[in-house]
């Protein structure tokens, strides 16, 4: 493996959001939402190429205004509500490899809905992938006791049953073992896992832990309110936003 592997980051920004219309270009902290992801990618030490994949002319225009590269408009058949990330990423990789005339070694998905993600989060996740030799690596965040899988239940009729892990009776929340979930900020994978195996994750997935305050994933109006609250807290602490 070369000392500086070719790594493509794709900022996936489909138009037509139902949960929060226009969210990818909605202004947060004085910049469109997508601009925060463009900035984080540009500040990465490891990414060699970063592009925006979108079907929306307004998103493309705003992305370009904020320094993003938009080398193509995503085909309509890859921009439906039900379209998964796999074919979107395969299309982007194929386009870019043909454009530069060489293959990538690693590929990264960056969604605009994680505005507090940093370049360090990106590089940390990618470095974890490279160092472990895993098929993929994802940013993860520790869940609070209220969201712990021990407390997750399901209903069958009127019976409350354990969803996954039985809850030991009388166990205090402080005694719950650490549990994590995907933060939504960074998804990195080997190029061949994506293009040859047709998978985003593969058999071996490594995790890179990021702090909770950088793990807001905006999907709807409530998430946006949480993000605005986080901005106010950061400003009150004198932190850069």
UniProtKB/TrEMBL annotation:
<protein>
    <recommendedName>
        <fullName>N-acylneuraminate cytidylyltransferase</fullName>
    </recommendedName>
</protein>
<dbReference type="InterPro" id="IPR029044">
    <property type="entry name" value="Nucleotide-diphossugar_trans"/>
</dbReference>
<dbReference type="InterPro" id="IPR003329">
    <property type="entry name" value="Cytidylyl_trans"/>
</dbReference>
<dbReference type="InterPro" id="IPR050793">
    <property type="entry name" value="CMP-NeuNAc_synthase"/>
</dbReference>
<dbReference type="Pfam" id="PF02348">
    <property type="entry name" value="CTP_transf_3"/>
</dbReference>
<dbReference type="GO" id="GO:0008781">
    <property type="term" value="F:N-acylneuraminate cytidylyltransferase activity"/>
</dbReference>
